[in-house]
Design goal:
The complex is a heterodimer of chains A (about 190) and B (about 180). With about 190 residues, chain A is an all-alpha fold. Chain A contains nine helices and no strands. In chain A, about 65% of the residues lie in helices and about 0% in strands. Chain B has one domain: AhpD-like. Classes of the chains: A mainly alpha (about 190), B mainly alpha (about 180).
Chain lengths: ~190, ~180
């Protein structure tokens, strides 16, 4: 059970974003811009960054959610699994490997990103904006992971929950649904 | 020099990054404004102390010193209070509630799962309510983001406390993203 009263039908981050909507709004906007806004990184690549960071922070809810979203964008389940196991042998571009390593360093601590990590990413073709967004996505998911686990939120009970969530993240993105989330309450 | 070519290399810490990408700057500033100056059962001074403490534990000099300077401004304290925050407020009469929330913030800084039922129970025992516990956790999590953004891109920061006095006053009394 979560450390504060959140609605029972809203596990993980979803209950927290409804608990305090005025702080949720800028968090949602930032996520929408970074993961769905104009970028030279694909949505799938950006979801991989979110997945690697959440996995490194051992945040089960965020890892499952962004793995499911990345899988849908990438059209396979192997890429995410391999990225979570060993970035260097995963089937992604050399540029993405360098950016994912930067993201993992940011997760451990901002100061662990070295000039060598940055030079490697630039040598593989990463632009300043791609490096900026990678660092900010990694930092943002440290916020999410610590928020979700720091308040002890629950995991979903239903099998298939993350497939439904991933479908929503792809088709609606990260902004609040206009009608809210009462339709997710169990009817029986 | 930062890891990326900023539009203005003279702007320190997060200021240069916000100037580099205005699209992401807007929600980042809105979040800081709402969390630190918006409606809350915690005072802005208490919230800035939490932000400054988390930034110190993350060794982010720019965020620590600027938010500690904002706390000084809110509390009417001299800049010596910045070093008092670093030391964990040993010489300041602080409520048990704020001490318990700072402990929770420290647990979040080390890792979300470190917050135990006992930590939360102790905060409630000291008078903290649900929204204060929520805000302490989210402030700690948000500063783990801000600190990583600022240090992950290798921005520069002025060293002496005095360099942050005006900035802290502006953060406290004008706000974030306000001119």
């Amino acid at each position: 059970m979560a450390h504060i009263p959140v609605e029972a039908h809203l596990p993980g981050i979803t209950g927290l974003l409804e608990y305090r909507k005025d702080t949720a709004q800028p968090i949602r906007e930032l996520t929408q811009i970074l993961l769905r806004g104009p970028s030279t990184l694909t949505e799938g690549e950006r979801e991989l960054i979110a997945t690697v960071v959440s996995n490194g922070n051992k945040c089960k809810f965020c890892t499952a959610a962004h793995t499911a979203a990345a899988d849908l964008y990438l059209g396979d389940k192997e890429t995410c699994e391999m990225v979570k196991t060993d970035i260097s042998s995963a089937p992604v571009s050399e540029k993405m490997k360098a950016l994912l390593i930067i993201a993992d360093k940011v997760r451990e601590g901002g100061k662990l990103v070295t000039t060598a990590h940055i030079e490697k990413a630039k040598a593989e073709g990463a632009t300043d904006l791609e490096i900026h967004d990678t660092v900010l996505i990694a930092a943002l998911f440290c916020l999410y992971n610590k928020y979700v686990d720091g308040l002890g939120t629950a995991l979903p009970e239903e099998a298939g929950y993350f497939d439904v969530l991933a479908d929503r993240l792809i088709n609606h993105g990260y902004m609040r649904l206009p009608q809210g989330y009462d339709h997710l309450k169990k009817t029986n | 020099m930062a890891h990326i070519a900023l539009k203005n290399e003279e702007l320190p810490g997060i200021v240069g990054l916000l100037n580099f990408r205005p699209e992401t700057a807007r929600p980042l500033l809105d979040l800081a404004e709402t969390l630190l100056r918006g409606p809350s059962d915690l005072t802005s001074g208490e919230r800035e102390i939490i932000a400054a403490s988390v930034s110190y534990w993350n060794q982010c000099h720019f965020c620590h010193t600027s938010h500690a300077a904002a706390a000084c401004a809110h509390l009417g304290a001299g800049l010596g209070f910045i070093d008092e925050i670093k030391a964990g407020l040993p010489n300041t009469p602080v409520s048990n509630k704020l001490r318990a929330l700072l402990h929770i913030a420290h647990q979040v800084q080390k890792g979300g799962k470190n917050v135990s039922d006992a930590d939360v129970a102790a905060a409630r025992e000291a008078g903290a309510n649900d929204s204060e516990i929520h805000d302490a956790v989210l402030i700690a999590a948000a500063f783990c983001m801000f600190n990583r953004y600022v240090d992950g891109l290798g921005t520069w920061a002025p060293q002496p406390n005095e360099a942050y006095k005006e900035m802290g006053e502006r953060m406290a009394f004008v706000g974030y993203g306000k001119s």
